[in-house]
Specification:
The complex is a heterodimer of chains A (about 290) and B (about 300).
Chain A: H1 2-35, H2 41-45, H3 50-54, H4 65-96, H5 99-114, H6 117-133, H7 143-167, H8 171-174, H9 176-179, H10 184-213, H11 216-221, H12 240-250, H13 254-291
Chain B: H1 2-19, H2 28-60, H3 64-67, E1 72-73, E2 78-79, H4 82-113, H5 116-129, H6 134-153, H7 161-197, H8 202-213, H9 215-231, H10 234-239, H11 257-267, H12 271-308
Antiparallel strand pairs in B: 1-2
Helix pairs in contact in B: 2-12, 4-5, 4-7, 4-9, 6-7, 7-8, 7-9, 9-12, 11-12
The chains are: A mainly alpha (about 290), B mainly alpha (about 300).
């Protein structure tokens, strides 16, 4: 009787793990098998000569280059908006805030973290509608808006990681600043932030990875299928994840489908590198704390 | 009179200062940090107000009842979003009921029912999975899982509730595993030592001591997994088929609220359509807010119960 029940439990546990491993293995094999063969210069630049494509002299058709540039620009812009805000807010919560203030801000930030990305995109979209109605009738979705909405999406990650990195600094290390006669700002800049820098940096990398993979936000706020290279921050743009979505739904022939597999492979590599980096930083941080 | 008002104001100001911890040494840099914190706290409120503002016309024009009709037929002037609400709910519950047992099983594997080294590898795989973009999940499912379902069950196009729920469950398994794992990691060593000294086997210890002690994370994982499943857009959009109807069986094509928003923005610009769009956004926002509040309550309850123990 008891043996039977144990056998059932154990087989459930092993089956779950087996299911997980086979799904992930199948998934990766599929992406690599279908995606890797189509990764070459043609995937990135199409029939355009490479140098004139990179310098922006010739337009690239049916290839990844504009999407890579679009994704890169939107991530960099979003990071520039979100990092000062997120790190600043994290420092304030960890070092200054009174408990009731911290409670309210944390609750709101958690709310923001839980908000689905499509709602974030809808917010950006409604912002444009609002601007059109009021004082900017020619307002349209654009790279800048996408970056702003992505910044909102990644803001909570930055706040949480900064806050935990600072809160986990050991008490004796905290006292170094005051004991040397530093004021609060000097302690922060010369003692606390350097000690927490790895954790904060890991948070930034994680946030950039999130921004790179998200499709729902940019879908509503300015990405279009064949935009080419973005014309400034107020123009439309292409992006890697949206290209996968678009080609999956609208491919006309096998070549375009192969291009979609290639894009998926490239995006998986980019995001994989970013997340591995963040995980490695997090692990070394943890190792340093446990060592102290 | 004036002095009274003045002192009252000063008192209030002091209270406010202690609330946001402004003191005498507050420099310009500290002000910047405070501004960042206040902005981060307010932005979510601004977001919600914007969504509400664009939903308002529906209520002012008395069209709110139309919103909750059971039919989405824009060309006949019917804009009911109830089928989408039902679709989202069915999708989230189905994927949760697939992912939860698997996630719990994996957690038990990591925490003692499997070989330790293998458990570490499985945990690494789980961490890796958190980084996989949802659009790639949707893409692979649309080209592998959907044709498979179409051929295996010969039921419609294969784009169905079942396909989306299976794909979505792969997405939320890491969420569930990592949440339960983080609590087991905290409480397990002490309990394990006691249980081992008492001669209780690993499997009995897990089921009768450790898991009951970790009840907070067991609830929280379900709630958080539900929140993630409701909030995901791309998988629902690419795999669920997007027919605006109430789901009858697992092979029916359904449309989730998130996918609905993406589809309507992409296709149309009629005004009534737009307002129903923002109503969908409000519903989604409120759902995830409820998820957060539930998590906070669970946490509060758990923390007090530990203090009492």
């Amino acid at each position: 009787m008891i043996k039977g029940y144990r056998f059932l439990l154990l087989s459930w546990v092993w089956l779950s793990v087996l299911a997980l491993v086979s799904v992930v293995a199948g998934f990766l094999t599929f992406i690599i098998h279908c995606g890797l063969p189509s990764v070459d210069l043609h995937l990135f630049f199409g029939d355009t000569p490479v140098w004139s494509a990179i310098l922006g002299q010739a337009r690239v058709w049916d290839a990844l280059w504009p999407a890579c540039v679009g994704t890169f620009l939107v991530i960099v812009l979003a990071a520039f908006m979100a990092i000062p805000l997120g790190v600043g807010c994290g420092i304030y919560l960890a070092q200054y805030a009174s408990p009731p203030f911290r409670k309210i801000v944390s609750f709101n930030v958690e709310l923001l973290a839980g908000t689905p990305s499509i709602v974030m995109g809808l917010f950006g979209f409604s912002l444009i509608l609002f601007l059109r109605k009021t004082f900017l009738p020619q307002a349209n979705t654009c790279l800048f808006l996408s970056a702003g909405c992505l910044a909102l999406l990644i803001l909570p990650y930055l706040i949480f990681t900064t806050q935990t990195a600072l809160e986990n600094i050991a008490q004796n290390q905290r006292l170094v600043g005051p004991s040397l006669g530093f004021n609060r700002l000097q302690t922060l800049l010369h003692v606390l932030l350097p000690a927490a820098s790895k954790g904060i940096f890991g948070g930034i990398v994680l946030a950039v990875g999130r921004a790179a993979e998200d499709t729902a936000v940019i879908m509503l706020t300015g990405v279009i299928a064949n935009a080419g290279l973005p014309r400034g921050v107020f123009g439309n743009f292409e992006a890697l994840p949206f290209r996968i979505f678009y080609l999956a739904a609208e491919h006309r022939n096998q070549a375009e489908l192969d291009s979609a597999y290639g894009t998926a492979f490239v995006l998986l590599c980019v995001v994989g590198v970013l997340f591995t980096g963040a995980y490695a930083l997090h692990k070394t941080m943890e190792w340093r704390w446990t060592k102290h | 009179m004036i002095t009274q008002v003045k002192t009252r104001c000063q008192q209030l100001l002091m209270k406010l200062n202690t609330f946001v911890s402004i003191d005498r040494d507050f420099t310009w840099f500290d002000w910047l940090l405070l501004c960042a914190a206040v902005f981060s706290a307010l932005i979510v409120g601004v977001l919600f107000i914007f969504l509400l503002y664009f939903t308002l016309p529906l209520f002012l024009e008395g069209k709110a009842a139309e919103l909750f009709s059971a039919h989405w037929r824009p060309f006949h002037g019917e804009f009911g979003i109830l089928p989408m609400v039902a679709g989202s709910l069915a999708l989230a519950l189905c994927s949760l009921s697939i992912a939860y047992p698997v996630g719990l099983g994996i957690c038990l594997f990591i925490h003692g029912l499997g070989p330790e080294k293998l458990g570490r590898v499985v945990l690494l795989i789980i961490h890796f999975m958190t980084g996989i973009p949802t659009v790639i999940y949707g893409f692979v499912a649309a080209f592998v899982l959907v044709p498979f379902l179409r051929n295996a069950f010969a039921a419609g196009s294969g784009f169905s509730l079942l396909a989306a729920a299976l794909t979505l469950s792969v997405l939320i398994v890491p969420t569930i595993v990592l949440l339960i794992h983080s609590q087991l990691q905290q409480i397990s060593p002490a309990l394990r030592l006691t249980a081992t000294t008492l001669g209780i086997s690993r499997i009995d210890e897990l089921f009768h001591i450790t898991l009951p002690a970790a009840s907070y994370s067991l609830f929280a994982a379900a709630v958080l997994g539900f929140g993630r499943a409701v909030g995901d857009t791309l998988i629902a959009l690419m795999v669920a088929g997007n027919a605006a109807q109430f789901p009858d069986s697992a092979f029916d094509s359904i449309r989730a609220l998130t996918a609905h928003i993406a589809l309507v923005v992409a296709t149309d610009s009629q005004s009534s359509l737009y307002h129903s769009l923002f109503a969908s956004g409000v519903i989604l926002f409120i759902t995830t807010a409820m998820v957060n509040i539930t998590l906070n309550r669970l946490r509060a309850r758990f923390v007090t119960s530990v203090v009492n123990d």
